[in-house]
Design a protein that fits this description.
Layout (H helix, E strand, L loop, with lengths): L2 H23 L7 E6 L5 H4 L5 H7 L4 E5 L7 H10 L11 H7 L3 E6 L1 H7 L6 H5 L2 E3 L7 E3 L1 H13 L5 E6 L2 H9 L4 H22 L7 E5 L5 H5 L4 E8 L7 E4 L15 H8 L4 H4 L8 E4 L6 H19 L4 H15 L4 H17 L12 H10 L1 H9 L1 H21 L25 H13 L5 H16 L7 H25 L5 H27 L7 H12 L2 H20 L1 H18 L2 H8 L1 H20 L3 H25 L1
Helix pairs in contact: 4-6, 8-10, 9-10, 15-16, 15-26, 15-29, 16-17, 16-18, 16-19, 16-29, 18-19, 19-20, 19-29, 20-22, 20-28, 20-29, 21-22, 22-23, 22-28, 23-24, 24-25, 25-26, 26-29, 27-28, 27-29, 28-29
């Protein structure tokens, strides 16, 4: 062997050894692999039950949460479209999760279930393809059931042998099929079928999470069981598991729910899957969803126990809210009684005390099934206190006292994060997914109407109190109600301007200084609104509220997004005027004002009491602003005008009595 050939072979061996060492030092990162497992018909109690030991074990080692399952309608396809598009009402221009992933070069595979194919953006499968994952089982509905072993092996094959990022979607629909069959079966057979389906689900998850190559599992409940939905328990459990970096026992949350521990939105699933697959940030925005993240569980309490307690409280609130539709009718009747009979002014005081009573009574009510009416009995007892005291001290001082109690209760509760409103039926509902945080339209309207009736002698005092109320209503950290912020500024600005005019009428000096005060108030209010909108639009996409999103969309696309929002608000307002019981209360309040005006009582009140006149005008402006700006403006306006209507009836009744 020549010397040159020997040197060449030695150099090649050294180079090969160096390359092997580099390869060992820098292992190849496997492609992103995600399994989205849809299990409709499950509940948190099912996951913790005796038939699902694997799920129970995973809940102790992986982050979990509850997810509202609300969709535009009750059909299964609607629930799956909400997950796929990241919005409850997808439009033609919206891109689904499957479309976004395929546009980014990621393979999307749907193995079983029509819901899985909807989420993947594929046409529904035929009977032949569905039969590939079924097995004959006489005790199952229709005599067939999902074969968990065969389905798990196929899912692992699609996941672990992929050389590129892949999303595999599987729908385990045996629980939903058992629910559909329950109406034709005896209770014992229904329980056996459901327990058998839970065992098959647990076998599927146990086989999927067996040792092997790493991937991520996102287990989602798109819709609850029929029995749970009937009890108001429409929150489905969600679990995120991964092998390569196991989580410690934590809870999931989302910016959509403003970081509420253990609560995510069904519109967040698509964005979260896109993030798990490593899509760029601009491609992760699917619909209105945000990315789910894990946070520490509350101290001293297991995550599953915490979720079960919260689920019971939210379910109790939903059951109580079914009776809330009668409250506007009762309040309207009390106002009509007070208008027809001057001694009925105590009924107006009672009506004004109902909102605060419902808020304060909720924590005292039990959370068991069938106890929905108890919170109203407790609230009724609270609401009787002001009218009874009014028999001794007079109706107007007690009405002002009711307004003070209502204002302080709602302000302090909003400042503390809403612990009372989160439990009260006189509020938004997490289960309904209309709002997850802040202050709802009912409470915002009541706060506005009550706060504007509290006597304030100083003009600057009225302006300062208005800014405080507006800030607590509008800032995302507290109320997160932009419509309430505008209505508060409009109402308190009206009251401050009325005080400026009254000072100008009684002053001997020229009114130039007072006109400057008026323009100063208007300028400060406009500057506050502009600064709030600019600040919201400048925040990150994951931190904006709907106001920030609208402002950012208007900055990018012009006035078209604002026109769409205005059209949607007008349509919703028109629909609520024809369907909501709060429209009955609002129309009753307007009718009472017109009736008293025709009989001259309104003029008598406005001429004899300047403080009452200023409060009535300010509350009327605030109610009109709430009606025009809020999404559910009918509700906010009806709650707001309840208090000035009560004041007008009290003053008119006292005038007639004298």
């Amino acid at each position: 062997m020549s010397r040159s050939l020997f040197i060449g072979l030695a150099a090649a061996m050294v180079l090969l050894s160096f390359c092997v060492r580099i390869a060992r030092a820098q292992p190849v990162t496997p492609p992103a692999r995600v399994l989205l497992l849809l299990a409709p018909g499950a509940s948190l109690a099912d996951w913790r039950g005796p038939h699902t030991p694997t799920l129970k074990r995973l809940m102790e080692t992986a982050p979990v949460a509850l997810m509202p399952t609300r969709a535009p309608d009750s059909t299964p396809a609607s629930a799956y479209r909400t997950i796929a598009f990241g919005t409850r009402s997808p439009g033609r221009a919206d891109r689904s999760l499957g479309d976004t992933l395929r546009a980014s070069g990621i393979r999307v595979t749907a193995l079983a279930g029509p819901g899985a194919r909807i989420v993947a953006g594929l046409p529904e499968a035929g009977d032949e393809e569905e039969a590939a994952w079924r097995v004959r089982l006489p005790e199952a509905p229709d005599g067939v059931a999902t074969d968990p072993v065969r389905l798990a092996d196929a899912a692992r094959q699609a996941l672990l042998h992929a050389s590129a990022p892949v999303l595999v979607i599987v729908e385990f629909d045996d629980l939903a099929r058992a629910d559909a069959y329950a109406r034709f079966a005896l209770p014992r057979a229904t329980r056996e079928q459901r327990n058998s389906a839970l065992r098959r689900l647990d076998t599927l998850i146990d086989r999927m999470t067996a040792p092997g190559e790493p991937f991520r599992l996102l287990l989602v409940t798109p819709r609850p069981s029929d029995a749970a939905a009937a009890r108001g328990e429409r929150l489905g459990p969600v679990l995120l598991w991964q092998r390569e970096a196991p989580f410690t026992p934590t809870l999931l949350t989302s910016p959509t729910t403003r970081g509420t521990p253990g609560l995510v939105a069904n519109t967040d699933i698509a964005a979260t899957v896109a993030a798990l697959l490593g899509l760029p940030q601009q491609s992760q925005a699917i619909g209105a969803g945000r990315i789910i993240k894990a946070i520490p569980a509350p101290r001293g309490e297991a995550a599953a126990t915490y979720l079960e307690r919260r689920a019971q409280a939210w379910a109790a609130q939903v059951r109580e809210q079914k009776l809330l539709i009668f409250v506007p009718w009762v309040l309207a009747g009390a106002l009509l009684l007070a208008a027809a009979w001057h001694r009925g002014c105590y009924g107006a005081v009672w009506a004004a005390s109902v909102p605060a009573a419902l808020v304060l009574a909720a924590p005292l009510a039990p959370e068991g099934v069938g106890q929905a009416g108890i919170v109203y009995l407790i609230a009724f007892g609270f609401s009787l206190v002001p009218p009874l005291l009014g028999l001794r001290f007079g109706p107007r001082p007690l009405l002002i006292g009711v307004c003070v109690v209502t204002t302080l209760t709602l302000l302090l509760d909003t400042l503390l994060g809403g612990p009372l409103l989160a439990r009260s039926p006189f509020s938004y509902s997490v289960v309904e997914a209309a709002r997850y945080y802040g202050i709802g339209n009912e409470a915002a309207g009541a706060l506005l109407g009550a706060a504007l009736l509290i006597p304030v002698q100083s003009v600057w005092g009225a302006a300062l109190s208005g800014m405080v109320v507006a800030a607590l209503l509008g800032l995302p950290r507290w109320g997160a109600d932009f419509g309430g912020l505008i209505a508060a500024l409009a109402g308190f600005l009206t009251r401050a301007l009325r005080g400026v005019r009254r000072a100008a009428e009684t002053a001997a000096a020229p009114a130039v200084a007072h006109r400057r005060q008026i323009w100063a108030f208007i300028g400060v209010a406009a500057a506050l609104v502009a600064a709030f909108v600019y600040w919201e639009a400048s925040r990150g996409a994951g931190a904006r509220t709907h106001i920030g999103q609208a402002a950012a969309a208007a900055r990018e696309r012009g006035f078209a997004p604002l026109a769409e929002i205005a059209a949607r608000k007008i349509a919703m307002g028109a629909r609520l005027l024809g369907t909501s019981p709060w429209a009955v209360l609002l129309l009753t309040e307007v009718a009472v004002w017109l009736y008293l005006r025709r009989r001259g009582r309104v003029a008598a009140v406005l001429l004899t009491d300047s403080d009452a006149a200023a409060a009535l005008r300010a509350a009327g402006v605030a109610g009109l602003a709430a009606l025009l700006i809020n999404d559910s403006g009918v509700v906010a306006a009806a709650a707001c005008l309840l208090y000035p209507s009560a004041l007008l009836l009290v003053e008119a009744g006292q005038t007639e009595k004298r």
